[in-house]
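This section describes the prediction task in plain terms. A model, or a person checking by hand, is given the sequence of a single protein chain and must write out its three-dimensional structure as a string of tokens. No templates, partner chains or ligands are provided. The sample shown here is typical of the held-out split.
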Amino acid sequence: MTSAQFDYDLFIIGGGSGGVAAAKRAAAYGAKVAIAESKDFGGTCVNRGCIAKRLMVYASDFPRHFAAAKRYGWSECQADFDWQNFSKAMREYLQKLSQSSLENLKKNGIEIFVDRATLVDSHTVKLSDRQVTTDKILIAVGGKPTRPKIPGIELALISDQMFDLEKLPRHIAIMGGGYIGVEFGSVLRNLNCEVTIIEANDRILDGFDFDIQIAVQQGMSDRGVQFITGSKVKGLEKDGNAIRLSIDGNDGSKTITADLVLCAIGRQPNLENLGLESAGVEVKEGAIAVDALSRTSQSNIFAVGDCTDRLQLTPVAKAEGKAAIDTMFGKRQTVDYNMVPFAICARPEAASIGMTEDAAREKFGDAIECYRTSFEPLFHALAADETAQIKLIVDRHSDKVLGAHMVGDRAAEIIQTLTAAIKLGVTHEQLQQTIGIHPTEAEEIYAL
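The expected answer:
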């Protein structure tokens, strides 16, 4: 398949979720493929993101299980948490996943460069010891945490560093109440750390339905997390072994001290020293500009995942990578961003699919009907006083479900099961006519 004038049909820069998925898809078309990754294969998700964070969530759940066990007839558990032991087990597992990703690429006949790659021109890629030519290029270099330009910001950790802590902090201050800050805050509070989250908006989880924002913040507050909303950190400085944060907000100025600070105000495309200008690839507002087919300003160069200005989610990057390859070697393929589910792996857990109530009312006005339920999951009937809630947003004219939002145990798994139905236009009446499994949390959807 390879044209005689090129070394490869496709060269992929970046071995994260999008790049690995694209490489396998391209190999299935019979293309000669190479992929370059300078760090760990599997990218942020496997090594410094969602999988690692989910393992931390599982570790932090055990105190709740131990407390519940006594109500279920078990003798009281006396247990101590060993952070270093857990960290070692987590790192070993993540290394195994990264190695597995590498081995799968090799099995598919993909040439691998553990090296940094930069663009020389639209068909040439420079590695540390050579240059190679390629017919097509896919850029999948992901993103990196953002740091604000404030005094002392170098004292704060970024999310990538949270998985390498030698010990748990006594008190952590988290700058940012988005999903990253909320998830880390939830984990560390459940591991008995004091947690303070500072958020610029009046509510955490900007962009989520307001009922989810309120329920997650209240649930975390009930667990002991402190929130300072409507506020920004203006500077950090050392205070002995602690760090002092200067905060300006709706209630004026204040200072707090913590022995660890996490900066979790967002992520940005990782485009430094990539050679985009040399290849004539347009960058717009800090991200690689792409069309609906993931093509850049150079028709043979594509970009997917967090280095573009689209949704920063692992399954989205995978879908974009596969669609881009189909466009290159098969038939034109796009990705539908209208019905992408989201989850907050906190305690309480939250998940969403489709439109928020605010977005629906902005588009459909008074034609919107919201159906809500709050209930006690059966597990908590004996174990704890904890509730869950589900919310459906419905277009009164068509009866179609426009969005679904849940806070409570297994919210991500439950909302995920609704994704296909809502995408295909399920109506509220059809859900009501569906028989669920009893007793489960998910059956509450069909009773709304």
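For orientation: The mean pLDDT is 96.
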